[in-house]
Structure formats: C-alpha cells, structure tokens
Amino acid sequence: MTSEWLVVVVVAAAASVGVVVGDVAPDATGWGPYEVVGSDYQYETRVRPNVLVDRATDLWGRLYRPADVSNLQDLPVVVIMHGNTGTCAKSILHNTTSLGLSCLYTERGKCPPGFEVVQSYIGYAYLAEPLASWGFVVVSINANRGITCGVGVAGDPSLNLARGRLTLRTLEMLYGWSSGYQETPTSIGADLYGKLALDNVGLVGHSRSGEGMRAAIAMYDESNSIWRQLVPGLRITGVFELAGSDGQSRGVYDAKGLPWVGLVCGCDGDDLELRDIHPYDRMIQTPHEQSDFFKAVYLVNGANHNYLNTEWKLSDSIACRGSADRIFRATDAASTAMRTVVLNAFLAFFRSTLAPTPNATLLQNFSPLYDTPASVAAVTVVSKSYVPSLARDDVLDVEGFLSPTGFSQQGQPEGLQGSVQTNHSRIFNSVGSYRHDQIFTSNLITWDTEGGFYEDSWAPLGESINASAFQALSFRLCQADDDVLNTAETTDFSIELRDGAGQLLGFPVRLSDVALVQGAFAPFSSYFLPSTTRTLGLNPTLQTIIVPF
C-alpha cells in the first residue's frame, strides 16, 4: 500500500558510461597545501546609497587567504553572507552567545546593557578556512548594521535585495584592491594588487542571503546596471546556498547559466516548507540553457537551520518528524557531525568548479549515481536532486504531466492495471498544503495491492522517439505524506522501459537497486508549539532517480 509523487521524466545524457550504481563519491573534506590566515577589514559606518538610501550600513567582513600570496595570482574568490538573526544577544554558557534577542545594534550600532553583538560573519570559518587552504580567497560579509534584523522597505520586505547590493558593493571593494585604484587595508596583512580573479567568483548565501545572492546576479546582469561600471569584468561562476530563502522579495531570482547547489536542511525549523528547493524546481523547468552547467539539491536529512552558523547557539528545531532523525543536539551548538556533512558538499562544489585546477571527480558527490563518502554516510542520509546539464542537446524532456489526469504529455491514455490510480496536480501534503514550486505539475500515483502497473507513453500514437543518443532515464520521486497508504519507511517497485513494439530495453530494475526513497519528514520547530507544527503536515520532497541504460 503506497502513494508516490512522480515528476519530470527526462531522458538525459546524465550517466557516465561505465558507472556502477553504488560507487562511492570521493571525500572532499581534506585540507589543501596552503597555510591560512584570516583577518578583518572595516570601513566607516555610513549611508551607502547603492546599498540602502535610508540608513547606515557597514563595509566590514573577514577575509581568509593563503598565508603567503607573494607567488600567487588569479586566486578564485568566494563571498559568503550570513542569514538573518538578532544582532544582540545575552551571554550564556562559557561566554558564548545565544540566538539574537535584540535588534538594537542594527539601527544604533550598540547593544543594550548585558547584551553583546552577535558576530554572525565569523560563523563560517569552518568552511572558509579549509577552502582557502586550496588557494581561494574567501570573504565573509558582516551584514549586521542596517540589514540583519532590520525593517524592510517597499519591494524588499526582508532586505534580501539589500543583501545582494551589499555583496556587489563588497565585490566593488575587492576590485579596487586587485586593480590597484584602492589600497588593500593593512589589516589584511598582504597587498592583493593583481591577486584576485574577479572573473571567477563564487557566491554563498545562508538563509535570506541565498535569495540575496541570486538577486545580486540579476542586478549585475541588468542592461543599465551601475554595477557593471563599478565592477567591470565580474563573472559569477558558481552559487552555493545554505538553506537559502526564496520568494521573500519582489521578482523571481534564479542562478541561470552557472553551476548551482542548494544545500537543504531536512529538519529546518526556520523554513518549515523547504522553499529553498524552489529555485531548483524552476531552473530545471525553464527554457534550456546554452551551457552545460549542473544544478543540484543536497538535502541533508536531520540537519537544522541555525547550526550552519557556529555563532548561532539556539536551535531552530527541537526534533524531527517523519522519516528523518536529527543529526544535531538542540543543546549542543557545536554539531561537529552535521558540519562535516556540510563541509564535504561545500568543498566538493568549489574544488570541482572554481579551483585553479578543478577536481571534476568531486562532482560525484552531487550525483544520485554515487553513494556519499564514509564521512557523510556515518552521519546521515543525503537525498539528491540533480541534473548534470540543461543544455538543449543533453536532455530530452518526455513527460511533464501537463495533460489532464489519465493522459500522457503526448495525449496517449495512461496504462493502469490493478488498484493503481493517478492524479496530475501540484504536490500537496496530508493537510492540503502545497510543497515545491508552483511552476510544475506532478503525478500522484497510488495503489493498495501488489501486482498492478502504471504506464506512460512518450510519443503520439503511431510515432516514436529516438533516445539512442542518451545514456540514462532520470526522474524525480518522493513518498507522499499519507499515513494510511505509506505504512513502510521506504518505497520499492520495478521500472521498465519498452520500445514501440513492447520489447524490454535492458530492463526491468528495482528502485531499491538505484536509490533509497524514504517517507516525508518535517521538524518540530522551536518557534511554534508542537501542536501547531503538526498542523502543517510533513514535507514530501522530491529526489532524482537515475537509471543508466
């Protein structure tokens, strides 16, 4: 007895010839050959009209780099921005700080008596330092003043667009240092003239800054953008989001024409609907890109939102509901195991895309064809959504469930046998709340006895398609949030591919031979009563299944 959501069937040149499903991706967590130093830069607090016109902001952050850059040049640059929290907090246990309890610093630049500033920008050193050891310059922006915990403005209620503009202003600063029209501050400890490759820049956004980074790309790409004059030659070559927000600003922002990974926390008590998956949903549905860059969702089962930043000490989630077990302790902000999983994905992304000598094999960490390395598998299960390319010649879309229920995209009647039933609609959960982006339609397939089948025809009656140039069948799948039918924790069924004459083409295969598909899940959020959280239902969350031909 089960019910599943099926979406976006694609025949794709996705699988490498010779790959054996179950091969293990390489571990990316090791340190590189360079010693690393980190130091702050800080300019005066003032109104910066290109960021916000109605309040003062800072141009402040921490820069991580190889200790000796005298013989280095063209260093790739990665810019990180933290998410939203209070900017002041009371001191607790061992002089650490809890999640922010006051926003006074945002406006006035000082905290109330008994509070201290939450230094969110230093909370990603566990990512920045290892990356810098591989020959990167990493800048973590301090967005506290004027933005973090700040009052929104028209068209930008969450100040995510302001976050994008502060990112561009920081890149303008780096351009000044590297081009020589502005001196590198002495606090950095090295002259960065001629050292930075601003045509090879990666962006990292946590929470609201995820959307902010995508907005920064859009603002730079506008035809009359002032930022093109201020940062000439800037080229964003990759975006990595840490539980990034979506839909909080005017406009829709995606990361088209470049590699993109959204790391999603399965026990996220801040983003209860996992809207950080929506950019991926949109990008794989939009018209084909001219490039062959990959997109991926890396869903870390049992991870929470706040512990992605080491300075955020209060968990957003008490526990997990459904199929996921938490991999953090609500009273232990260290969460070393969880951050090991995050670090592996982070380093795998940048070392395989932006590195001076890219290690392409590290991309295997994002493909469902490969198991996660031992350092990750020992902590949790990672569910992956993945497309290796959106270039027109690399994918053949054969089903999007755009026709009425009962018919394939090509107008052919669906083949149903036994108790199998279908329903073409948006993905919803047990309380009727929609999940995933509204851009696409899915197919809810249900059955309550064994022995039936669902058949989808990919060509109009009397016609055929030629898939000989492709190497794999790829589709997205998840268990529905249905306690009555989905009594087992995992799902399994057989998959067959037949030609126009009904002959099997090297199939069938069992789903369990190529993927682990678990049930829906959700957090018990720290921000709501458990009874309130339950009323929101679970999150049926799609993952990619790849079956090599």
Descriptive overview:
With about 550 residues, the protein is an alpha+beta fold. Helices cover about 15% and strands about 25% of the residues. It contains ten helices and 26 strands. The strands form seven sheets. Strands 2-5-10-6-11-12-13-14-16 form a nine-stranded mixed β-sheet, sandwiched between helices. Strand 7 and strand 8 (about 95) form a beta hairpin. Helix 2 (about 125-130) packs parallel to helix 7 and helix 3 (about 160-180) crosses helix 4. The two termini are about 30 Å apart. Residues about 15-20 and about 95-100 have low confidence and may be disordered.
* Radius of gyration based on Cα positions: 24 Å
- Give the total of beta strands: 26
Percent strand equals: 25-35%
Task: Report helical residue fraction.
Answer: 10-25%
Q: What is the makeup of the main sheet?
A: 9 strands, mixed
State the shape: globular
Distance between the termini: 29 Å
State mean pLDDT (0 to 100 scale): 90
Structural class: alpha+beta
What is the chains' assembly state? Answer: single chain
List the uncertain runs. Answer: 14-18, 93-100
Q: Order of strands across the biggest sheet?
A: 2-5-10-6-11-12-13-14-16
Number of helices: 10
